[in-house]
Amino acid sequence: MIKSLNTAATGMVAQQSNMDVIANNIANVNTTGFKKGRAEFEDLVYHNLKDPGEASGLNSVTPTGVQTGLGVRTASVQKDFTSGNAIMTKNPLDLQIEGTGFFQVRTPDGEISYTRDGSFKKDANGRVVDKNGNVLIPEIVIPPNSAALEITPTGEVKSMSELNAEPQNLGQIEIVNFINPAGLKNVGKNLFVPTAASGQPAESRPGTAGMGYLAQGELEASNVNIVDEMINMISAQRAYETNSKVVQTSDQMMQTAVNIK
Q1: Disulfide engineering: 160 pairs with which of 24, 148, 196, 222, CB 3.0-4.6 Å?
Q2: Nearest to 170 by CA among 147, 144, 136, 142
Q3: What is residue 69's DSSP assignment?
Q4: What is the pTM of this model?
């Protein structure tokens, strides 16, 4: 009975982790460029009373053995990097990557981080920054007399000081990709940093080397499907309740054994 109590307890802990992931997905349903997560589980070690193939007699072996599982644990939280829907904003500094790739920004401590959130702004010096003031890399500076800004699908940034004026080239936006984006580490504020699992960033112009194109005046919505998350939440709740029933049943069976006279 003790084994079933512990096994059911691991199931309840696993479903708590599952609910935490679902709750984070739902909380970020309106977060620009957010990528939903999915909890993945694995079974624990087994208590082997008899190994499969163990000798059971003269010239005979047991075909299946006797193995009792000891529960479950959370193995990973997989990030889903499928693209979210486009949100039309008409803001010239709002950018969406139509396909694979990440924008590069420099944080105040000098480190380079990566994001799918293309809602950029201008700071006091005209530099293009994200909503937290992290500078877009390569650095783009918009002149004070800029009246119109054009960002091409391949990342060229052009500014015009007045109508019918010759466009001024301000720079080139480069984006990066990773061999394994799911291996990136979330650090909050819509930012990722590379790890040994993600591989090193490969930089390229938008629209080349398998990178997506840029779309000006658009943002990428969160890829969370609220209906799917509600279904997942109900499933997790029922699994948690079922594991709690196993705990109750095991307790009742132990009580019956204790009360035998």
Answers
A1: 148
A2: 142
A3: E
A4: 0.87
Residue pLDDT, tens place only, 219-232: 999 999 999 999 99
* Residues 171, 137: Cα–Cα separation, whole Å: 11
Mapped onto helix, strand or coil, the DSSP state of residue 4 is: helix
Does one domain contain both 47 and 166? no
10 Å Cβ neighbour count for 156? 17
CA triplet 121, 88, 224: central angle to 5 degrees? Answer: 95
Same domain, 73 and 97: no
Domain count, the chain: 2
Average pLDDT, whole number, for the chain? 91
**Is residue 261 over pLDDT 70?**
no
CA angle 211, 214, 216 (to 5 degrees): 175
Task: Give me the count of residues in the chain.
Answer: 261
- Given a cut of 80, whether residue 178 has pLDDT beyond it is yes
- Print the domain residue range for 150: 86-220
